[in-house]
Amino acid sequence: MAGKFCVTQTYAKNDTDKATVGFVIANAALGSEKETMVFLMAEGVRLAEQGYADDIHEAGFAPLKELMANFAAGGGQIFVCSPCFKRRNLDEKKLVAGATIVGGARLVEFLSDDAASVSF
Q1: Which site in 40, 41, 93, 106 is 20 to 30 Å from 9, CA atoms measured?
Q2: What is the pLDDT of residues 48-103, one digit of tens each?
Q3: What is the pTM of this model?
Q4: The Cα angle at residue 22 between residues 91 and 103, in degrees rounded to 5
Q5: CATH number for position 42
């Protein structure tokens, strides 16, 4: 693959436009043959829970559930901030496909390898 790309996602239903656009960009990076990771943190960790994104659909975009599924199916990695996830008392047994709970060190490791990054 031609480089690495990271999307840091801090929004969920508190800003569905930003939550959606983050995954649009992540899918575009995958389509550009980048090793792509989405790092969910703060409210964004809610997107990692099965069923949460099912009703998010911003006009002009594919439904967020579909964007997330396509991202995972295409080999994208979804990393979920462990302290943020635990703080919200979410269920580790109900993660969406492709999601893994990790510490912040995983983000630092990925970015330290010359990854481009955007944040939403």
Answers
A1: 93
A2: 999 999 999 999 999 999 999 999 999 999 999 999 999 999 999 999 999 999 99
A3: 0.94
A4: 45
A5: 3.40.1260.10
Total count of domains within the chain: 1
Instruction: Please name every residue paired with 100 in a beta bridge, in sequence order, or none if there are none.
Output: 79
C-alpha 98/C-alpha 43 separation (Å) is 18
Boundaries of domain holding 23: 4-119
Instruction: Compute CA distances 2 → 24, 34, 58, 110, whole Å.
Output: 19, 5, 30, 14
A 10 A CB-CB count for 1 gives 11
DSSP letter string over 92-118?
Answer: GGGBPTTEEEE-HHHHHHHHTTT-EEE
For tokens 């912040």, the residue is 104
Looking at this protein, which amino acid is placed at residue 117?
A: S
